[in-house]
Specification:
Blueprint lengths: L3 E5 L3 H12 L5 E6 L22 H4 L5 H5 L2 E5 L3 E5 L4 E4 L4 E3 L2 E4 L3 E3 L12 E2 L4 H13 L2 E5 L3 H12 L3 E5 L12 H13 L3 E3 L6 E5 L2 E7 L2 E4 L2 E4 L3 E3 L2 H5 L8 E2 L11 E3 L4 E5 L4 E3 L4 H15 L11 E6 L2 E7 L6 E5 L7 E7 L2 E8 L2 H12 L6 H5 L11
Parallel strand pairs: 1-2, 1-7, 2-3, 7-19, 9-16, 10-11, 10-16, 11-12, 18-20
Antiparallel strand pairs: 4-5, 5-6, 8-17, 13-14, 14-15, 20-21, 22-23, 23-26, 24-25, 25-26
Helix pairs in contact: 1-8
Amino acid sequence: MSERIVIIGAGHAGFNVTDALRREGFDGEIVLIGDEPHLPYQRPPLSKAFLTGDYDLERLLLRPAGYYDDNRVTLRLGDPVAAIDPASANVTLAGGDIISFDKLVLATGSRMRQLNIAGHELDGVCYLRTHDDAVTLMEGLESAHSVAVIGGGFIGLEVAATARKLGRNVAVLEAADRLMARALPPLLSGYFADYHRGRGIALHLSTQADRIEGNRGKVGAVRSGETEIEADLVVIGIGVVPATELAEAAGLECDNGIIVDALARTSAPNVWAVGDCTSHDNVWAAARLRLESVQHATDQARTAAAAMMGRSEPYRAVPWFWSDQYDLKLQIAGLTDSHDDEIIRGDPASGQFSAFYYLGDDLKAVYSVNRPGDHMATRRLLALGRTLPRDVAADPDANLKPFIR
Ligand code: FAD
């Protein structure tokens, strides 16, 4: 009888496990289970081109419908897994079906962190994680005059930029004293704050939303202390939490995500986990962490697929990420948990620059704004374990190619 691999979660990571297994030559059965009703799709455009109406669902799809038949992938969509039982090797769907497996992959992603302040249940308060959330948000944006975004992280700011492009009045409330503080060094936070202000966004830093106010069930304002920010649409983007419920209920080790090793194996035999829902020892940070990015979902999925096929390719991909806000493309290569030197390449005022972060002689991370060549070269450089002389980093005209040969 052929082997059956069951994958829970039909997002970026789940899809990429499927795809990598077939590319690796896996000839058995693949069952891909997703709670959303849609074929696997890309999430990043949801806060970008999809919101402005430039994309539709068809264009978001990771592969067209025919791919799944062609690759003999059994899709079970719109029916979440309610429980997993690694000991008896089966999963139970909410609809009652029980599916047995030889190997199981958890690719359940993450969910939006909820902000349960007074008024959170009012009509016009939204989150953005799924295609269906994006459709609701688009409908809200059509009639909204003023939008308040709670949370100055990547998703909140991308939505803010899009809403501004659509001509709405936009305010952003951020509890920290700078934007995207978890991911960006202060220089970049400041640059983006100025850019958003310059595009007409009202930025409220060090401002925690206390309550959402409304009348007749519809949102009307967000309040922080004595400050009242008028809004007929409120978007909450205060981060995500890993979807670990199934793993925890089954007794798998979890700590800020399902704990996996370098081959994406969980603490249970024959059970792997990939993507946003996992935490792993990251070689670039020398720490256990959870990454929330398409790169991580894709690369860890490939590691898991190879491991399931008996090949050991420990996960050590260079972390990279991007965000689009207005005409700015921010690209990040590497991680900066700590640094002792910051080198700027190019003139920030020109809208094209990169910031290089060093710890001693080691290049740790590079943040590029509208300089994709720097990003690609430094990703490669980091992957090769090399550094870059500071004077070369500082010279916007210096060719980086010789350093990656
Ligand atoms: P997901 O893509 O979330 O997929 C997990 C799937 O599992 C979901 O469909 C979920 O509903 C499903 N699921 C959960 N529990 C169950 C269950 N019990 N049964 C069945 N199915 C279940 N990353 C970038 O790198 N760059 C960007 O610019 C960027 N922009 C983003 C913009 C938005 C609006 C969002 C929401 C995310 C963005 N990200 C971006 C993050 C990126 O999309 C995620 O890191 C990536 O989707 C993670 O993939 P995943 O498969 O682990 O999780």
